[in-house]
Specification:
The protein has 2 domains: 150 residues, 2-Layer Sandwich (Phosphorylase Kinase, domain 1); 223 residues, Transferase(Phosphotransferase), domain 1, CATH 1.10.510.10. The longest helix has 20 residues. Strand 1 and strand 2 form a beta hairpin. It is α+β, with helices and mostly antiparallel strands and 435 residues long. 28% of the residues lie in helices and 11% in strands. Belongs to the protein kinase superfamily. CMGC Ser/Thr protein kinase family. CDC2/CDKX subfamily.
Length: 435
């Protein structure tokens, strides 16, 4: 981490609360008035070229102060605007990476247990960014999850992995500067309840497996797959994010913690206390997300503890034995007195939407296996018949190329979007946003 951490940087956090708005505007004014030709960010009438002549994606950026009170979290995403430097004078040439003054804070997006995420904009190149600000306690220093996340992400370059642009360190905070992606899979599914369009599920699932195949080839386990950690761009690009629990997996196997992965997406071997897991850990989570996208609700939800979760899994895939899963009785949490004998059920009977798409039930069955060694790999899953309807060019794409660079490939409108569009009599957006 030392080689990428830029120390002695001054980090100024512009909060979005109304009680600091005056300070925020004054600070931004200070940035733009240092050059005699600079303009105030909110002075729309004297922008060198008319605001309405700007590319539509940047109209949002110029008007950020004006429209904040009219909307919640923004759904915009820049489209590589051209000649931005001629239009917005607050952008500076020659600003370095690794300094807080190179980024403007626009709004707070969310807060977690050890970090707060803000939407921001880079004064280096004018691109929207996500600023993950991690507070450092004097007695504890940098959280180990932050060290792990930064050290892993700096070496990952893939279209389906969130891109880490920059790292800023001060005495009080550590800030990760990520590419800005406007929503996540959990929010997308909440906007489209009842299950997603199978075609879109196929595109999302291909991208998820593509990202997993990449990190698994780098001997990295994500260890925390869930819809909230899968970002979705306005085009429909899916990106793995939040690598705080990720680990570099050496060969041969090492022993790891069993306290990983959100309970609903945790495989039975880890629930039973296994610590010698490998890439099969992520495959189970991806299988659960696959079912959730099609079915519209989590595959194994509504439980409060490990034993209830295990029982819910056994009711679908069947209670394991030494014959079906060699070594299961040796796992720390395997207790016969708590076991209820269940027979395996056809997945199509439990999750009926799996049976509506060719190959969906078989793919889910190959991912949701009790015995970890029997789960399909991400690389093999990409070749499954479920994806046969997708263009074959997807398998030849370079790692950094999006699947949507293949001509003719795009998300389709979800059923709810078509219904709303029909009722309003509206036409599709100029940006072809599918929701």
């Amino acid at each position: 981490m030392g080689e990428v951490l830029c120390s002695n940087a001054v980090f100024s956090c512009f909060c979005c609360g109304s009680d600091r708005r005056a300070q925020e505007i004054n600070q931004e004014t200070h940035y733009v008035q240092e050059e005699s030709s600079a303009l105030k960010l909110t002075d729309f009438n004297e922008v060198p070229c008319p605001v309405r002549s700007l590319p539509p994606q940047w109209y949002h950026t110029v008007q950020v102060r004006r429209i904040r009170s009219l909307r919640a979290r923004s759904n915009s995403d820049p489209l590589q605007g051209k000649n931005l430097g001629q239009a917005l004078q607050w952008q500076r040439k020659g600003l370095p990476f690794g300094t807080a003054s190179s980024y403007l804070n626009l709004e707070k997006l969310g807060e977690g247990s050890y970090a707060t995420v803000y939407k921001g904009i880079s004064r280096i190149n004018g691109q929207l960014v996500a600023l993950k600000v991690i507070s450092m306690k004097a007695e504890e220093g940098v959280p180990f999850t932050a060290i792990r996340e930064g050290s892993l992400l700096k070496g990952l370059k893939h279209a389906n992995i969130v891109l880490l642009h920059d790292i800023i360190q001060t005495r009080e905070t550590l800030t990760f500067v990520f590419e800005y992606v406007h929503t996540d899979l959990a929010q997308y599914m909440a906007q489209h309840p009842g299950g997603l369009l199978p075609y879109n599920v196929r595109l999302f699932m291909f991208q998820l497996l593509r990202g997993l195949s990449y990190i698994h080839h780098q001997h990295i386990l994500h260890r925390d797959l869930k819809p909230q950690n899968l970002l979705i761009s306005y085009l429909g690009e899916l990106k793995l994010a939040d690598f705080g629990l990720a680990r570099a997996k050496s060969i041969p196997s090492q022993t790891y913690s069993s306290e990983v992965v959100t309970l609903w997406y945790r495989p039975p071997d880890v629930l039973l206390g296994a610590t010698d897991y490998s890439t099969d850990l992520d495959i189970w989570g991806a299988g659960c997300i696959f079912i959730e996208m099609l079915q519209g609700h989590p595959a194994f939800s509504g439980v409060s503890d490990v034993f209830e979760q295990v029982e819910k899994i056994w009711s679908v895939i069947g209670t394991p034995t030494e014959d079906s899963w060699p070594g299961v009785s040796q796992l720390p949490n395997y207790k016969t007195e708590f076991l209820t004998l269940h027979n395996s059920q056809p997945f199509g009977n439990i999750w009926e939407r799996l049976s509506r798409s060719i190959g969906a039930e078989d793919l889910a069955h190959n991912m949701i296996k009790g015995c970890p060694r029997e789960r399909i790999s991400a690389e093999d899953a990409l070749l499954h018949v479920f994806f046969n309807s997708l263009p074959c060019q997807l398998h030849q794409l370079p790692d950094v190329r999006s699947i949507f660079s293949v001509p003719g490939l795009s998300l389709k409108p979800e059923i709810q979007d078509l219904f709303i569009s029909h009722r309003k009599g509206s036409q599709s957006s100029i940006h072809h946003r599918p929701w």
